[in-house]
């Protein structure tokens, strides 16, 4: 067997198709055949449009559904603060689901079309490689070669622009939804007022309680409704009282704020935990946020 | 102002000079089928941009990179290197070539099979001479080892 170097040279001399300047001129001046690309890059205009619109509709549908389900409707809450944010999803979901389904449908059609294109590519020639030029389109070069035919990249640019536009729209919508989440957070001063109020309960601090509530403050539960002075005396004598806060939902914004918290409350006299929801109404009076109403909905000792 | 016939002749000279190295380099990198198309595409690009290419110091190296871009447009065959019936060529050589890295193949083919210098090969690949030497030595050693083992089996 000859040297490896000789074998490599003999092999490449046999398999490599050399290119002459004449070949180059013919290729440069003839109508090009369809370049044989990897099937994943072969996309028809209809597929590009379907995929673009499908992505847009899917993103829009998904964002709107997410918004309807997860962003609470703040205007629902009545004066007593009892309300639910899940009603929005029930109202809007059918139309949004249709939008989402249409988006999926368009996406599926686009992908099917792309796959069909890929199948066409495979059927046109061998699995491994295809003829690059279509012989019938070859023309002899004519005259001096001064200008060359440029490839049409319009479709490629259209797809890129469409994709950028869709991504931009999606990002804008998502940022819009994220920004709207600010409704679920309270301003720092409102949060501080709420903390002070809760601390007054936990520390059985009557003075702090009076300071954190308005003169018109009321506490309502199944056992009755109590005014500020009455409740303050109750808070001040609690020998043992504790509560755990779970999920907190801002049910209204502006003035007043309605804040609902899931709570577990335990009194020394009862010894067991009681589950319920506290709805606290905060108002701004003379530049200071205070608790105007506290409604306890749940178990009582 | 340059006249068009002299530009035509200059391009022809350029093709004659650069084509062998580029053809073999791209064939070694992407297989003979895709390599031939990529070479032709690269030279068409050179013809389209002859005003720029004409004055380049390392036009062949630049066109190799153009060829690399063009090669990505083609559907790669499952077997980069087809079987060949050339006399004195081991039947497993195409398989062994495919097992080398792309740069090892190009360096080995250009330097050891066609006698290009390390500098010429480095210009094509855009690598240093030392790197090219390492690629070529390792590529050749792997081929020799594989073919030698087979010859003595």
Features:
heterodimer, A: 301 residues, alpha+beta, Nuclear Transport Factor 2, Chain: A, 8 helices, B: 153 residues, mainly alpha, globular
Task: Write structural notes for this entry.
The complex is a heterodimer of chains A (301) and B (153). Chain A has helices spanning 4-15, 21-29, 45-70, 87-124, 154-180, 188-202, 206-212, 228-237; strands at 213-221, 224-227, 241-252, 257-267, 273-285, 288-298. Chain A is α+β, with helices and mostly antiparallel strands and 301 residues long. Chain A has two domains: 4-183, no CATH class; 188-298, Nuclear Transport Factor 2, Chain: A (Roll). Chain A has a six-stranded mixed β-sheet with strand order 2-1-6-5-4-3. In chain A, helix 3 packs antiparallel against helix 4. The longest helix of chain A is centred in the middle third of the chain and has 38 residues, at 87-124. Chain B is built from eight helices and no strands. The longest helix of chain B is centred in the N-terminal third of the chain and has 27 residues, at 4-30. Chain B is globular.
Q: Which percent range fits the helix content of chain B?
A: over 70%
The number of helical elements of chain B comes to: 8
Query: Any idea what the radius of gyration of chain A is?
Result: 36 Å
Please count the beta strands of chain B (DSSP E, at least 2 residues each): 0
Task: Assign a percent range to the helix content of chain A.
Answer: 40-55%
Proportion of beta-strand residues of chain B? under 5%
Main sheet properties of chain B: none
Q: Which runs of chain B of at least 5 residues are low in confidence (pLDDT < 50)?
A: 149-153
What string gives the helices and strands of chain B in order? HHHHHHHH
Q: In what range is the share of β-strand residues of chain A?
A: 15-25%
Sequence of secondary-structure elements of chain A: HHHHHHHEEHEEEE
Provide the number of structural domains of chain A. Answer: 2
- Averaged pLDDT of chain A: 70
Principal-axis shape of chain B equals globular
Gap between N and C termini of chain A: 99 Å
Give the integer mean of the pLDDT values of chain B: 88
